[in-house]
Design goal:
The chain is α+β, with helices and mostly antiparallel strands and 381 residues long. The protein folds into two domains: 16-125 and 336-380, Immunoglobulin-like, CATH 2.60.40.2250; 150-330, Roll (C8orf32 fold). 19% of the residues lie in helices and 31% in strands. It has helices at residues 163-173, 179-193, 208-214, 221-234, 294-304, 311-320, 368-371, and strands at residues 16-19, 36-50, 61-66, 74-83, 87-93, 98-105, 113-125, 195-196, 218-219, 239-246, 269-271, 276-284, 288-292, 328-332, 335-337, 348-350, 355-358, 361-362, 373-380. The protein has a six-stranded antiparallel β-sheet with strand order 1-4-7-2-19-11. A five-stranded antiparallel β-sheet has the order 5-6-3-17-18, with no helix packed on it. Strands 13-12-10-14 form a four-stranded antiparallel β-sheet, covered by helices on one side. Strand 17 (355-358) and strand 18 (361-362) form a beta hairpin. The protein is globular and about 60 Å long.
Length: 381
């Protein structure tokens, strides 16, 4: 298998890594800082790994861990890690800026241990709530998208933009010409026509073509928000998912649901091993990226046993089109991409969970106990 080169400058570390990240390219953002609300929250997320090799395994083990991006609404202030690995270092996929902590063990017969601590600072991202689009104007019809935006118009194996996806998108937007209003129509269609299905494993696979073809418009966050992204792209609106994890209690939407949006105990401690959540965003010329999350509207409906049209559901929906409460951190925008270094199993669907291979075979990252890993987040007050 042809191997992609490691990110230039990635250094192999010894038994202990202590880093204040200097990923200069990740600090460049097309998300206006003025769209973030200065209500800083700081979380320490501790990740503990004790990989469990399948019976009979004795060869090499590799582990890839997603690491938060730096954006206007979140900053990775510090990361440290220690363990009995043979090597561990930070790397990235250049296409989607998927920051990664990679660790490896030469012998999977013995213990494979790693502890990671991240200090994360967040700001709520609220461009629509703060009326940041008051002076926004429609783009020209012959708009040429910047090179860095173009990938978020393209199809991937799980995000088709033609055929049934295109037909569905055109029906939804009708004669509407404003990209902002088109995105709103798509958000409304997704949150009203789709439903959360808790029987789906993990966050779902986000196979949009299969979801629309089957006509069973259900799933979890990756399924639902990937449909939003695909419909936007098919309408000519750049869009992308962001894969991440909830860190603590909701302060803004928690009044509408104690179950749907994140929780913590009285000391700010949250057990978040199963807290992975995919969000979405779309791009407007002359403004930049805007947040969305129709999947959490469907999650709230299910958790509170409410229907579309209920006042609480509508309030949550109004907030989640154009705003994110940041008791959550995003890792990356990666879909159908190659890890760095490349995995034996080839391209990864998405990178919201840790991924590991022993003797070239993947471990079940959807089951923390089987993998195994444990995540705890503590909010600093």
């Amino acid at each position: 298998m042809k191997r992609r080169k490691f990110l230039k400058g990635a250094a192999a570390l010894s038994s202990f890594g202590l880093i204040s990240p200097v990923w200069s390219e990740s600090r460049k953002t097309d998300i206006p800082a003025s769209t973030c609300v200065d209500n800083r929250r700081r979380f320490v997320m501790t990740q503990t790994y004790q990989l469990k090799a399948p019976a009979g395994s004795e060869g090499k083990a590799n582990l890839w861990i997603p690491v938060p991006l730096d954006t206007a609404f979140q900053q990775l202030k510090h990361i440290s890690f220690s363990g009995n690995y043979q090597q561990a270092y930070l790397t990235a996929n250049n296409t989607y800026a998927a920051k990664t902590l990679f660790a490896s063990w030469l012998d999977s017969k013995g213990p494979m241990e790693l502890k990671v601590e991240m200090l994360i600072e967040t700001l709520d991202w609220e461009p629509l709530k703060s009326n940041q689009l008051a002076e926004w104007h429609l783009p020209q019809t012959d708009l040429v998208f910047p090179a860095e935006i173009q990938p978020y118009l393209n199809a991937t194996p799980h995000i088709p933009v033609d055929g049934l996806v295109k037909e569905t998108a055109l029906k939804i937007i009708g004669s509407e010409k404003s990209p902002l209003q088109q995105a709103r129509l798509i958000h409304e269609w997704v949150r009203t026509h789709m439903h959360r299905d808790d029987a789906v494993i993990g966050c779902g696979t986000g196979d949009v073509g299969q979801i629309l073809k089957a006509g069973k418009l259900g799933g979890k966050c990756t399924d639902i928000n990937s449909v939003f992204v695909a419909l936007c792209r098919a309408s000519g609106i750049p869009a992308r998912e962001m894969f991440g994890i909830r860190l603590g209690a909701s302060r803004k939407l928690g009044n509408y649901s104690k179950k749907a949006f994140g929780s913590a105990d009285e000391q700010g401690v949250a057990k978040v091993s199963g807290g992975q959540h995919c969000r979405a965003m779309f791009w407007l010329a002359g403004f930049g990226w805007l947040p969305a999350d129709p999947a959490d509207v469907t999650k709230m409906r299910l958790a509170e046993k409410k229907e579309n049209g209920d006042a609480a559901v509508e309030a949550v929906n109004d907030y989640l089109f154009g705003n994110w409460e940041m008791n959550w951190v995003g890792f990356n925008y990666a879909r159908d991409f190659a890890l760095s270094p490349e995995a034996e199993q080839g391209d990864l669907n998405n990178f919201g969970y840790p991924y590991a291979e022993v003797d070239g075979d993947p471990l079940n990252f959807y089951d923390p106990a089987e993998f195994s890993y444990d995540y705890v987040s503590v909010e600093q007050r």
